[in-house]
Amino acid sequence: MNELVILTIEQIRNDNEKVLFHPVILKNDKEMVLVDCGFPGFLSQIKESAMAQNVDIANLTKVVITHQDFDHVGSLAALKREYPAIKILADTKEIPYINGERESIKAKKRREMYDSLPENQKEMINAMQRMYGTYEPVDVDEILHDHDIFQWCGNV
């Protein structure tokens, strides 16, 4: 039986704005695959949201990373540390960013444009750069390619 579980992670930003993130779990009797894992610190919320839907993420077999943005990879190192048997999958173009060989595209752009910003925007950029600086690189176990079809969870 193939099942799609949509998690809900709530984050309150500095301006008290509530932002929702929705990582997805694909599962069947052989595989349980998390798609993306949110910002650093989201692991406990991922666990709670999954448990609220009777899903134990200790049974995860894979994590698919869609791209290297911080809100998609931020909790990856914590997830891999807690569940070392999980296989991490990503497109070959994303691997150097995930494993730390290259600086995040967004972090690099922010750093490069910093000097041209008005003073009132520089603190926001500084805060974002500090956040990006907390990213822990993680090795990717399997490479994904465009148009791959996987035999798990109903031929994804």
Protein described:
The protein is 30% helix and 21% strand. The chain is built from six helices and eight strands; from the N terminus they run βββββαβααβαααβ. The strands form two sheets. The protein has a six-stranded mixed beta sheet, with no helix packed on it. It has a two-stranded antiparallel ribbon with strand order 2-3. It is globular and about 55 Å long.
Shape: globular
In CATH's first tier, which class applies?
Alpha Beta
CATH superfamily: Ribonuclease Z/Hydroxyacylglutathione hydrolase-like
The SSE string, one letter per element, is EEEEEHEHHEHHHE
The CA-CA distance between the termini, in Å, is: 14 Å
Any idea what the radius of gyration is? 17 Å
At CATH level 3, the topology is: Metallo-beta-lactamase, Chain A
Q: Which residue ranges are poorly predicted, with pLDDT under 50 across at least 5 consecutive positions?
A: none
The total count of helices amounts to: 6
Strand content: 15-25%
- Main sheet summary: 6 strands, mixed
Helix content: 25-40%
Task: Provide mean pLDDT, rounded.
Answer: 86
How many distinct folded domains?
1
Based on the coordinates given, report the CATH architecture: 4-Layer Sandwich
Find the structural class using helix and strand composition. alpha/beta
Task: Please provide the count of β strands.
Answer: 8
Strand order of the largest sheet: 1-4-5-6-7-8
